[in-house]
Amino acid sequence: MTEVPRRIILIVDDDIDFSESLSRLLSLENYNVLCADSMETAMQAVRQHDVAVALVDIRLGSGNDGLDVVRELRRINPDLMCLMITAFASVDTAIQALQAGAYDYLSKPFHSEDMLSTLDRCFERIQLLNVQKLTEVRLRQKQHMEAIGQLASGIAHDFNNILAVLLSNLRLLEERIGTAHPQFTELVSEAITATLTGGELTSRLLNFGSRPDDQEQTIDLVEMLPDFVAMLKRTLGQKWGASLDMPDRLNSLVVSRGLLETSLLNLALNARDAMEGGGTVAITARNHHVGSALAGKGTHEITGGFVAISVTDTGTGMSRDVRAHALEPLFTTKKRGDGNGLGLTMVDNFARTHGGWIEIESTPRQGTTMTLFLPGRFQA
């Protein structure tokens, strides 16, 4: 969903009557308006508020020059859209305003329709820039994940070869020992089991590095989820456990198994990290029918049968503000080095690509439930 541009406007003018009049007009048009009468107060407003557009008078009192104000404001926030207001319109003035970083200029006196039309253009440009930035972030994310996938696939392939040699020798050793030395037989058996477990993990790495379009298959969740939870228990660490609650029958999914497991693993690791002192990551699955509703943040209408897979923790939970930004690319509350803010974005992208969505329920200091909704197929 495209982000709605913020509608905070800053008026920078030392003519108090003009500022108040313009502020009232913009407020009637549902803009949030701030006023400043000098460079210092304007800079303070931009630092403290998420200002989208600044209307700056070219001539201010107290020795301030509007062009210098525009330069300083854009130095603080390079994305700020600035409109120069001038009573001395000329080609030179327009050139100077544009060189200073202004997007456009308005000549006093101006009609309100002209000003509102210019503001509309500003916000349309902000919208386009937001879309462009989001596209660039997602492209970088995709390239980053493809590179990680290729690396993981290469490592897994080489490690698989090592495990194959190890397993072959262990099998031979098991045959030679036979039943003559029970204590050694048990040790070899444990080594074979550990080697097979390593083979399972490398298979998951190979799935992670594969192309999703080539790997879509019908997934029986009743068969897949117990194996996944068993692997999860080995992955989370000694202080954490994992539980599974699901009915005997679930609709099947048509997705890449590797991407589904990677998405669930991301959710499970986030749940673990939210419970620093330990706890249980609870996974539940159920069939979910939607009559007619809006998916996720209201991006599109959905209907039909879905499977809801939830991952619940009893950890720190999220504030309303964190919850609102949780699915944004590169947003993370973890300290530097502990996360890059791509995990939930990957899960969200996986869900939307397959016609589903993700929902977040969270209460600070009580825990979080992340639910992945994916289109299901009825199994006879």
Automatic annotation (TrEMBL):
Q: Keyword set for this entry?
A: Kinase, Phosphoprotein, Transferase
Q: Which residues carry this modification: 4-aspartylphosphate?
A: 57
One short Pfam name that applies is HATPase_c
The protein's matches in InterPro entries, at most eight in alphabetical order, are given as:
CheY-like_superfamily (IPR011006), HATPase_C_sf (IPR036890), HATPase_dom (IPR003594), His_kinase_dom (IPR005467), HisK_dim/P_dom (IPR003661), HisK_dim/P_sf (IPR036097), Sig_transdc_His_kin-like_C (IPR004358), Sig_transdc_resp-reg_receiver (IPR001789)
Q: Which residues form the Histidine kinase domain?
A: 154-378
Q: Name one GO molecular function term.
A: phosphorelay sensor kinase activity
Coiled-coil region list = none
The top EC class is: transferase
Q: What is its EC number?
A: 2.7.13.3
Entry-linked PANTHER family: SENSOR HISTIDINE KINASE, TWO-COMPONENT SENSOR PPRA
Would you tell me the protein name for this molecule?
A: histidine kinase
Native source species: Sedimentitalea nanhaiensis
